[in-house]
Amino acid sequence: MAIRLSGMTSGLDTDSIVKAMVSSYTTRKEKYQKAQTKLEWTQDAWKSLNTKVYSLYSNISNLRFSTAYNLKKTSVSDTTKATVKAGSGAPSGTQSLKIKQMAKAGYMTGAEIKADSEKTTLAQLGYTGGDAKLEVKMGEETKSITLSASSTMNDVVKELRNAGLDANYDSSYKRFYISSKKTGVANDFTITGSNIDGASALYSLGIAYGGEKTTAGTYSSNPYDEYAALHGVSDDETRAKIEAAVTSYNNLTTDAAKMNAQSKNLMNAVNYGYSYATLQGIYEKLDANNAGDSDKLKLLEKLGASRDGSLILKNCDSYDTYTKTTLTDTKGNTLYKYIDSDNNSHYIAAVADTDKNTTSYYDVTESTRIAYTDAEGKALEAVPTVVGDTLTVGDKTYKKDETDGRYYLQKDGTADKTDFITVSQKTEYTIAADAENKTGIESASAAYDTIIKSMDEKTKSSYDEALASVQAFEASKDEVLGSDDEFSVASLTKAIQNAYAGKDKDGGTITVSGKEAVEQLLAGNGNEDDGFVNKANALEKDAEDNTKKAADSNIVKELASKQKDSAEYTQALNDLLDRVNTAYTLKNKALFNSQVKKVAGQDSEIELNGVKYTGDSNSYSINGLTIEALAETGDNAISITTSTDTQGVYDKVKDFLTEYNNIINEMTKLYNADSAGSYEPLTDDEKDQMSDKEIEKWETKIKDSLLRRDSTLGSVMTAMQTAMMSSVEIGGKKYSLSSFGISTLGFLNAAENEQNAYHIDGDEDDANTSGKTDKLMAAINDDPDMVMQFMQQLSTNLYSAIGDKMKSTDLSSAFTIYNDKQMKTEYTNYTKTIKEWEKKISDREDYYYNKFTQMESAMTKLNSTQSSISSYFS
After folding, report:
1. Is residue 214 located within the same domain as residue 362?
2. What is the spatial order of strands in the sheet that 597-599 belongs to?
3. Nearest to 753 by CA among 661, 837, 841
4. Tens of pLDDT, residues 368-420
5. Same domain, 633 and 735
6. Are 520 and 270 in contact (CB under 8 A)?
7. Burial 617-629 (b: 16+ CB within 10 A, else e)
8. Of 384, 411, 439, at which residue does a domain stop?
9. What domain range is 386 assigned to?
10. What is the DSSP letter of 34?
11. What global pTM score does this model have?
């Protein structure tokens, strides 16, 4: 903006005059600014409320399923032996537990040495060697340590700790105390020398352990024996023995992996088999009531989450699926696409009749034309004349630029880069004039809901569990087994489905079919060893045996992991060769401390209901129980008693109602808010005349009223309230919240804006209802399954009601209860309008300032002339 100097001659306050002259423009701009500010506050209010509603929506999602209410509590007959927590899957009843063995960490107490303090060096202990190479092995991990004659006891402790052990030197008793950080055999440790000096240093430190000394003067657990066993009379023979061990190790681990995979599939197939039979029975029951429902349901199952936005149309005995697209026809109607078996795309248009609140569907034709758009992306009104690489529009000539394909306006032979035409192929979709309304089209989501709602609660629960199990198994992939393996997912799936259809694994007819045939297949047809469970257990045992055999040759594991004939393999083989040769030397020359004591790492072992379990810790998670072993029981069993946690179920219902109440109360308050009357957002000038407290009070008055009597808010509230007031039929009897002593207080008794909140009779935390009879807890104690079923269905109704309000539309995004898209567009339009008015104000100001400048200039000249004339008379 140019510098404005005015009023210097006339003495007028030009700025004030101009400001007054454009005040009507400024008022219009401020009007839009206030409207935009109010819209922004409204967006913020909706965002805050939407976050809370979505949180409720997410939380009640889990409440639709029985697992949310399968809360358990448990007690142990002897809490000094074990503690137990019960998860939702834990069976009710009493179980027997024996703790046969506690897990222990490996622990070493060193022999007494002559180190008076932590600063004593190895040299002072009589060590005279050079670099002492040590190896600390924990499970499958090995770390190297290097000590020297100048290393102190503190240095040794530090190196052992860095290697992953707990270590300490006690100068009072002149011993090292070393242990592994975790319990279990797999976490035990050994410390050995990698060279003669290393073995000598360990002896000087009093931690050279070789087991108990025998009467023959040897040691029972010489740590160098394992590597030394691979030693041959020559390096070539040693290499051959090492490679033979690698081959054996690979065969054992490969076979173990295969058998473990087979065992896992068989165990999973048992659950799949029963679930598959249950699911087929439900399909048959559906078809008995309405033929073809099972085929429709199977299609809808495959669609899964994509049911939203999809349509289905019966085509003979199957269904065509139309998926919603972002395309529209020439009149703006949304298109749905179906891809046939030949991979051809077909489209239908959804034509909405807003007056009748209906939608009709018509086939559309697809055509392609040349589209011409200007530099702003707008279609040209007139079709250009095309001659070669030149376009002519009126008296303008455009020429094609091969680098970007655009046609630029030509001026004196030069391209004007600001004015161009883009030529493209545009695909259009048109409803034929004689197109007939396609009948029989269904919303995939609605069709699915209709079928699901036709099931009783028990069938619905069985269906959900069976479908989830079936889909999980059929979707699982074999990473070890080939598809042709007898126990691959594909093979087991086919075998179970064949059995249900009355066929053997090769497709031949058998005497039974259906659920009975599947159960016979799983049980072994009279021979238990052929049953899936026994086969799985046998394979698991064989895999365990192979794994143990492979562990006996674990020293070649690293070498076995490398590609044979690679440089890495050759290097690793040579390194192992050196280690074997060193171990062979140390086996015969290393000295061991006879006083050192070592407690081996030990796995825990328990028996639950007579079944043995082992682990490297004292914690177990078995069939919904989390068991923490504290002490051995020997052969004396302790009992674990599990039952339904009625208080937990009560608290689950109460927590749900509390969250619902908080949100519905806030909605009610927003909807019933006092009117802000003529209050409008303040301009900067208006704020300058008020204190911060006055501004805050003013704006709060407006913000509190933004959603007052809002139709969208009212619609959401009504949907939620209707869902909560709905009745649920269980076992032929209808129940509602009031059946369990849960109701609102009503307009006369409730606090302001809390008339829609629910209260539980007998709730000790609720002053309004604490004195009434607690029907909810009584119902839970009497029939917890019935209460759970009711809450599942009620949660489902509320979840669906909120979900319907959160569906994506042209005005709102998915999972949003308000028209966020529309508001965003309005906000952008306000920004554009405000800028336009700012430009108008600036233009008008420039106009008036220019006029005043001309007046000032004229007055300056007049004054100069008058001065000149006056000089003649002076």
Report:
1. no
2. 165-170, 175-180, 107-109, 597-599
3. 661
4. 888 889 888 888 888 888 888 888 988 888 899 888 889 998 888 888 888 89
5. no
6. no
7. ebebebebbebeb
8. 439
9. 329-439
10. H
11. 0.54
